Backbone:
């Protein structure tokens, strides 16, 4: 008997793929990572496959590596699989051609995701799938969680039988992350579907020295072509093999699929052909329209490659007159998108071969939909059917957007919907950290698995890592839920807002239908809450006659020890109000599920959650509201009113979740956006912010140095400026040498602070009468928001200190420089961003940044607003992200441009010397730009030069004008995480370091792939637990610094600002000054370490004190002077490794789950530390002979 | 032949040296070594209910943190099959140690809630402990908290635990009671089989450089013996419960003093941590030598011989002690 389970497609696929394979090579990439994570965890738990053995799961350094490992494992006879998406699939292409060319059975399970073009997107479409359609892999598409589960098995059976390798794909996020109720396949089902002889045949074809063969030869023009044609019959036979597998599957399970599944009127004259989850939307829409008498149908394409014309012809009704083919991809410059092209060819060929059921070829149009998970709704599906009615339907249309530029888009009726009125449709707005999504997933499981109801959940996350908003869309109902789209405006009969302040900015209630239930978590009493609502919200509640409930869930959470986790409280409210289950039964089920979810974390956690449930209902209240909306409060604007038009009108809607309405014409054509936009968002995400106490302050600048979000700043200025200062603006006498100005202020940006309190931790000054207080203390934000906003604005108006005016070799002075990286969406307390901010302070106005994909590219470059900023003169870092794997090369390319264009400018300058004036030319050519003052002077000269050039007619002058900016020193910084530097980008990084070019590399080392959820990289230290190293990493961290030092001409520094900020500053300045390749490896504490982020700096200190993270600088310039280039800035280890490590969950959890292994790995980790320390000490003692004639 | 044997909590011990609750008992081989060195019994390190609760909550907090809030990272850690959160690893160790040694093994429990005390006490008994030592401490910081309320609650708690157990129960006390003998009597009447005097707390220190409070536990020395020595001497013979003296026992003379004051056993940690488990043999040897020299036949013979009720001048254990010290000081000046 099959079980009913409620899971997402990643898990549904992994459950099958894991059981059918022996070797699984993986690499993390969104949204497919979950499949690898499940497999790794099961392998760590020794779960067996259906053949009774535990699959071997190997994490590789890239998807290219994973594909190579898959290829090798296949060649030697293993049943092998991998999971990937998007760029990952692209990296597999070379191996895919090989694997297919060698007729090797395997299935790559792909959660289809957008390929980066003008921008990266983690969301779903078919651009990756379409990019591999020429590899020779069969492409089999699922459209739902159940199908993904089923097709994982069908594709494996068909691949083994046909020898054609398969890509089994399903829509990224929409399907991969949708939680739905499915029937689970049993291991018996799987055994029944897999023909054991096909496995034996696969093994018999494998490489084996007992019966050697050679495969992978090089062939010449004489036979390559013919040999390529040998595979034709396999491809010809493949569709029938797949259908046979589908038929056999139907006998086992009752679920009967076809290569092309037709649904609709037998006499349909209009047909839509579509692939993936969108097909379900079209089918459900068609159902509704057919009931209204429309003659329409829909064909779901399951097997896209090999494309079977015969089966397509069989699927089409004879009555078809017009067809719309929908592609979830864009192929610029093509006659049409790929599926459209295939269908048109198929129709012609089918007719030519006499296979077509119709006599006249139908009219065919094509359209694009759903790029990057753009919503595709029944209203849009209806518009397409309606379009087909027209005599001249629009070809190459788009649907779901407003293309007011080239007018491709179809209009659609936004009010059209097809939901079942007997269903429950719920929308929940949650705060990232409050557990809302987890609780909702639980609710779906409860309803899905404890009732006969259909249940579905889909979750929207914004792209911020701090203060993020989650929107959960849950549907329950008497029927199976087949609705792969969000709950629409006016469709929800239950809306919950788990964070009161969302109502101040976002139109939460637009989802509510008339008479819906509205549940609000508010700190106000139930008879006070009404008056605290913005008037727009009041109006909607009255107009829609909402049943309004409120609870102070945070208070209940506080009292029951739940902290900021209001999940079980709000979940209890939901069940109590919604009536989906009888109240008592619901509470029993919630408790059962709490026990199941949290049981292994200990009784205390379970008890705490039980208590929260028990205290909920007494605190849940109905709000009786007035008949008139009378609130004086209004919705806050998305962006500050003084923001530029583009920011307000284009980025603004995105901030308040209205970005779908932004028309094509409003957007840049090439992905180019203005920088410095995060300053306008004013997120107000923290209830507590730091407040400065000038009387205690020692003006060290450490708080400013460590602030991850650049919200705490300091200035020294002329006291006369205080004349216009706001009353509460604080100031004291400045204690700085050589800095112009006599007054000093530390100011906090109250609406941008994330409340991480790193500044408080870093502050060394304690109040002499109350030692619990420092010069920076946290205080409640709301009471001081307005005054501090005014102070902040005033602070900004005080002129910044120019770099050339002061000496920036001290931490204190360096922090007078304006940060050009501010208010990012990074985690509160992020350990990476302070380094980036420092870089921006020191060199930002002449920096070009190449940023590897990862955390830093997301908080650095994800819309709506971005943190790279400009100074008062409009200069600032120019930033770009190419890919994950190529960042070093990307940055080197930038350097090559700088070098080439600088040279070219100099050449032109010399050749135009007479016209420009020899004196200016000489000054520019021989300018000393080793100091900031020198650079400033050069800028002034170049400004004069440009003025002169602008009036010159010589074509060379125009050339020179376009490259003259390069005469001012530029610096290239290559920034990325350890996943990039140690793994996927390592080959390129190595080459770039070896190039000798003047590039600077900053490795933000969190020791895991942080952005994708903490998978192990080669930077992960021994004994730490990470995803893909669930049993604790058994091998030591790669010593990237040592490898770089081996070149002898690369500047290398290892830093940890929490341990030694002065050393960090020195390393940055030395790296930039070094005329060659430099690399800084920066300890970056991370949420993935499982630490209290407020203590991140303390952990950095412990890492250094324990010898786990020795800090040093290796400066090759010393060698010429006969000095040892390696300066170890750490002291001998003074604490044990455990004292550092066991403060972190990543180490502790192994101790808790497998103490013996933890102890063994810890002993080895200590050996790693001591061996490395001894080695470094010896290296630092080596005597060098001067090569420049000087003695040391 | 000198007889070093004693009884404690109804258990027959070959000598009065007991290894007190310390990290030494975290490893079976250490306990085995203690036994080989001649120790009379061992008290396991303490199972801290508070720590279990804290670990459970901390694990939950850190596993939840950041999860389900960002599309690319639903979680940040792999889901483990199990976490040894809770008393299981402690209980397993009790069982393993019991299997490995023949000397009595006394469990030790530090609890915070009534439910927790009873639940964990029963589990320790089921794991095979020969007796249980309850560590009840409370640092009252609330000015409204009265000593009577505190003492009533503690007596009730101990009585509850005692009712649930069939193995003997000892209670480890702090020295900070206004009327310790009366409280000791109440506990004894509540069925407690032994009192352990006294608990050594972490004593916070202040770092004047960083202006931080630093938790600090320094190993005891023989001077620390004085405090428990006085109270053992005072309580001896006045309550039914046995007496264990702990804090400041470092050599054979310290042990002998404790016996003379009236202790059934001494509990030792600092000496073992500082100078190794092998000190057991040396101290026992020293005791024997001393007793031979001074012609004591057995420990029971000397037990209580210098107690409050046995000495010629009981006031020496009372306020006069202070007066005498002052006098001798004055004499010195003169």
Residues:
């Amino acid at each position: 008997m099959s079980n009913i389970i409620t899971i997402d497609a990643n898990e549904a696929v992994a459950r099958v793929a894991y059981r059918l394979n022996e070797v699984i090579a993986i690499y993390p990439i969104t949204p497919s990572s979950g499949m690898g994570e499940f497999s790794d965890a099961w392998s760590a738990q020794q779960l067996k496959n259906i053949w009774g053995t535990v699959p071997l799961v190997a994490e590789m350094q890239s998807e290219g590596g994973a594909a190579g490992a898959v290829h090798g494992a296949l060649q030697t006879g293993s049943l092998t699989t991998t999971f990937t998406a998007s760029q990952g699939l692209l990296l597999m292409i070379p191996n895919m051609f090989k694997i297919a060319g060698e007729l090797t059975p395997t299935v790559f399970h792909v959660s289809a995701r957008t390929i980066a073009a003008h921008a990266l997107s983690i969301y779903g479409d078919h651009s990756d799938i379409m990019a591999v359609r020429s590899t020779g892999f069969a492409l089999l598409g699922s459209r739902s969680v159940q199908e993904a589960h089923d097709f994982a098995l069908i594709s494996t059976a068909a691949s083994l039988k046909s020898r054609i390798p398969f890509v089994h794909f399903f829509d990224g996020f929409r399907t991969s992350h949708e939680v739905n109720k499915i029937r689970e396949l049993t291991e018996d089902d799987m055994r029944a579907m897999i023909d054991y002889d096909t496995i034996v045949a696969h093994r018999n074809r494998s490489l084996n020295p007992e019966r050697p063969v050679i495969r992978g030869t090089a062939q010449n023009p004489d036979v390559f072509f013919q040999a390529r044609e040998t595979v034709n019959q396999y491809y010809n036979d493949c569709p029938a093999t797949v259908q046979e597998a589908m038929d056999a599957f139907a006998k086992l399970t009752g679920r009967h699929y076809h290569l092309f599944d037709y649904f609709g009127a037998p006499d349909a004259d209009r047909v839509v052909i579509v692939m993936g989850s969108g097909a379900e939307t079209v089918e459900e829409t068609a159902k509704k329209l057919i009931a209204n008498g429309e003659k329409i149908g829909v064909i779901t394409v399951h097997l896209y490659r090999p494309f079977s014309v015969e089966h397509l012809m069989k699927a089409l009704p004879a009555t078809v007159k017009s067809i719309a083919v929908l592609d979830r991809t864009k192929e610029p410059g093509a006659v049409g998108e790929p599926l459209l092209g295939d269908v048109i060819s198929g129709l012609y060929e089918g007719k030519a071969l006499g296979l077509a059921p119709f006599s006249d070829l139908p009219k065919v149009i094509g359209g694009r939909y759903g790029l990057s998970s753009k919503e595709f709704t029944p209203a849009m599906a209806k518009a397409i059917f309606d379009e087909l009615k027209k005599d001249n339907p629009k070809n190459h249309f788009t649907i779901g957007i407003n293309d007011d530029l080239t007018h491709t888009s179809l209009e659609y009726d936004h009010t059209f919907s097809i939901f079942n009125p007997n269903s429950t449709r719920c929308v929940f707005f949650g705060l990232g950290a409050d557990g809302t999504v987890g609780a909702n997933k639980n609710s779906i499981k409860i309803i899905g698995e404890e009732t006969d109801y259909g249940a579905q959940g889909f979750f929207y996350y914004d792209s911020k890592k701090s203060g993020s908003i989650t929107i959960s869309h849950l549907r329950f109902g008497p029927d199976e839920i087949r609705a792969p789209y969000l709950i629409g405006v006016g469709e929800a009969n239950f809306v919950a807002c788990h964070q009161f302040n969302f109502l101040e900015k976002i139109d939460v209630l637009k989802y509510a239908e008339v008479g819906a239930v509205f549940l609000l978590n508010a700190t106000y009493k139930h008879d006070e809450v009404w008056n605290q609502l913005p008037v727009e919200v009041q109006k909607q509640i009255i107009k829609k006659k909402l049943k309004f409930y409120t609870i102070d869930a945070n208070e209940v959470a506080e009292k029951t020890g739940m902290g900021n986790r209001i999940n079980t409280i709000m979940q209890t409210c939901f069940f109590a109000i919604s009536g989906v289950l009888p109240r008592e039964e619901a509470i029993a089920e919630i408790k059962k599920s709490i026990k199941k979810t949290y049981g292994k974390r200990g009784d205390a956690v379970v008890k705490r959650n039980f208590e929260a449930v028990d205290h909920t209902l007494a605190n849940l209240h109905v709000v009786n509201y007035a008949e008139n909306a009378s609130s004086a409060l209004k919705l806050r604007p998305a962006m500050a009113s003084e923001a530029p038009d583009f920011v307000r009108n284009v980025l603004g809607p995105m901030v308040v979740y209205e970005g779908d309405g932004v028309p094509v014409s409003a957007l840049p054509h090439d992905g180019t956006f203005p920088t410095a936009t995060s300053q306008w968002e004013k997120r107000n995400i923290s209830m507590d912010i730091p407040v400065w106490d000038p009387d205690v302050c020692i003006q060290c600048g450490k708080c400013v140095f460590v602030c991850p979000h650049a919200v705490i700043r300091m200035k020294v200025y002329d006291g006369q400026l205080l004349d216009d200062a706001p009353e509460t603006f604080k100031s004291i006498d400045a204690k700085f040498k050589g800095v112009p100005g006599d007054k000093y202020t530390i100011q906090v940006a109250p609406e941008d602070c994330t409340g991480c309190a790193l500044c408080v931790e870093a502050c060394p000054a304690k109040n002499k009468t109350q030692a619990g207080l420092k010069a920076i203390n946290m205080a409640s934000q709301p009471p001081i928001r307005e005054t501090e906003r005014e102070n902040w604005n005033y602070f900004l108006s005080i002129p910044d200190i120019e770099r050339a005016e002061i000496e920036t070799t001290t931490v204190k002075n360096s922090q007078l420089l304006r940060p050009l990286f501010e208010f990012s969406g990074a985690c509160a307390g992020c350990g990476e961003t302070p380094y980036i901010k420092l870089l921006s302070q020191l060199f930002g106005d002449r920096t070009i940044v190449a940023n590897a994909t990862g955390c830093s590219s997301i908080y650095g470059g994800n819309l709506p607003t971005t943190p790279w900023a400009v100074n008062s003169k409009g200069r600032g870092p120019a930033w770009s992200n190419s890919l994950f794997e190529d960042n070093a090369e990307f940055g080197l390319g930038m350097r090559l441009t700088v070098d080439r264009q600088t040279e070219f400018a100099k050449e032109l300058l010399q050749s135009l010397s007479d016209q420009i004036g020899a004196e200016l030319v000489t000054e520019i050519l021989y300018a000393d730009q080793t100091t900031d003052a020198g650079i400033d002077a050069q800028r002034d000269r170049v400004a004069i030069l440009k003025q002169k050039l602008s009036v010159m007619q010589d074509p060379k002058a125009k050339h020179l004008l376009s490259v003259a900016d390069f005469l001012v020193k530029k610096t290239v910084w290559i920034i990325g995480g350890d996943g990039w530097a140690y793994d996927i980008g390592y080959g390129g990084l190595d080459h770039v370091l070896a190039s000798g070019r003047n590039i600077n590399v900053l490795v933000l080392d969190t020791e895991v792939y942080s952005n994708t959820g903490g998978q192990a990289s080669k930077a992960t230290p021994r004994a730490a637990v990470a995803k893909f190293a669930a049993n604790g990493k058994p091998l030591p961290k790669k010593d990237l610094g040592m490898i770089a030092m081996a070149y002898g001409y690369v500047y290398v520094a290892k830093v940890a600002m929490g341990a030694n900020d002065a050393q960090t500053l020195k390393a940055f300045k030395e790296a930039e000054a070094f005329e060659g390749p430099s690399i800084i490896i920066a300890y970056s504490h991370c949420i993935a370490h499982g630490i209290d982020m407020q203590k991140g700096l303390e952990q950095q200190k412990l890492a250094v004190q324990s010898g786990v993270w020795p800090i040093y600088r290796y400066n090759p310039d010393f060698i010429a002077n006969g000095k040892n280039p390696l300066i170890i800035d750490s002291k001998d280890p003074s604490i044990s490794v455990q004292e550092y490590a066991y403060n972190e969950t990543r180490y502790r959890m192994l101790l808790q789950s497998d103490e013996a292994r933890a102890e063994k790995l810890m002993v080895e980790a200590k050996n790693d530390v001591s061996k490395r320390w001894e080695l470094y000490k010896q290296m630092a003692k080596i005597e060098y002979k001067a090569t420049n004639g000087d003695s040391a | 032949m000198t007889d070093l044997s004693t009884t404690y909590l109804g258990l027959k011990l070959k000598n009065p040296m007991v290894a007190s609750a310390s990290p030494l008992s975290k490893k079976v081989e250490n306990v085995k070594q203690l036994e080989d060195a001649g120790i009379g019994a061992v008290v396991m390190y303490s199972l801290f209910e508070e720590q279990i609760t804290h670990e459970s909550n901390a694990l939950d907090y850190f596993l939840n943190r950041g999860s389900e809030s960002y599309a690319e990272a639903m979680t940040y850690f792999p889901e483990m099959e199990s976490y040894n959160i809770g008393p299981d690893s402690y209980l397993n160790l009790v069982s393993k140690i019991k299997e490995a040694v023949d000397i009595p093994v006394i469990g030790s429990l530090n609890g915070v809630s009534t439910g927790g005390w009873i639940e964990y006490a029963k589990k320790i008994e089921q794991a095979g402990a020969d007796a249980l030592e309850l560590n009840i401490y409370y640092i009252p910081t609330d000015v409204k908290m009265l000593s009577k309320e505190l003492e009533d609650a503690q007596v009730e708690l101990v009585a509850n635990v005692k009712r649930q157990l069939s193995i003997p129960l000892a209670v480890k006390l702090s020295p900070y009671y206004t009327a310790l003998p009366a409280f000791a009597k109440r506990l004894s009447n509540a069925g407690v089989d032994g009192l352990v005097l006294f608990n050594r707390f972490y004593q916070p220190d202040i770092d004047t450089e960083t202006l931080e409070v630093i938790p600090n536990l320094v190993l005891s020395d023989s001077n620390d013996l004085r405090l428990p020595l006085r109270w053992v001497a005072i309580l001896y013979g006045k309550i039914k419960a046995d007496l264990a003296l702990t804090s400041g026992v470092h050599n054979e003379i310290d042990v002998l003093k404790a016996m003379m004051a009236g202790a059934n056993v001494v509990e030792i940690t600092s000496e073992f941590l500082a100078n190794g488990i092998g000190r057991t043999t040396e101290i026992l040897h020293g005791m024997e030598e001393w007793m031979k020299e001074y012609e004591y036949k057995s420990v029971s013979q000397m037990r209580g011989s210098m107690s409050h009720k046995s000495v010629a001048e009981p006031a020496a254990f009372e306020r006069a002690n202070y007066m005498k010290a002052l006098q001798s000081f004055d004499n010195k000046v003169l």
